[in-house]
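User: Show me a protein chain along with its predicted structure.
Assistant: Here is one chain, sequence first, then C-alpha cells.
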Amino acid sequence: MFDERRARRQANNAFDDGDGVTRYRMQQKMFSIGDDYWIDNEAGDHVYKVNGKALRLRRTYAIEDPDGHRVASVQSRPMRIKDSMEIEDADGHRLALVKKALIGPVRDRWRIKQEDGADLTVHGNIVDHEYTIERDGYKVAEVSKKWFRLRDTYGLDIGPDTDHATVLAAAIAIDAMAHPGD
C-alpha cells in the first residue's frame, strides 16, 4: 500500500520537474466567428487549430493539424439531462465521452469515459482553468493559467504514455461546457 502511494507521488511529481511532460499553450482567438483556438507547443509553434463551427445546433469543434487535416472532433450531445460532449477521431469513431460527474462545494468533478482504456477523472477549479486529469490516481495532465498573464490563455501539460489528442479534446470539451457563453 505504501509502495503504491510512493510510486503515485513520484509519478505526479514528474509534472513539477517536467520529466517527460509535453507542454501546450491554448489561446482563444479574440476576433473570430465561432470559437477558434490555436494550440501551441513550448516553442510557440502552432501544433493544432481548434475550429469552432458557428451556427450549428450542436456545439462542434474540429481539431486540425497545421495543414488542415482533422485529427479529432468534439461535439455536444443534445437532448441529454447531463451536459456532455463526445470526442471522435478523424474517421468519426468515438474515443471518449466527457461529462460533468458531480458538483461539490469547493470543486467540480468531471469524468472522461474512454472507449479504449481506463476512465479519466478531472479534479480542480474548472472555471479558473486550474485542474488535473488523472487515471487511477496518477496525474496524466495538468491545466493551469498560472504560467500566463494573457487573458484567455492557459497551459496544458500532458504526461508520457497518454493520448495527447484525447486529453486536448477533453480540455476543449470541459472549457466549452464550463464557459458556454464565452
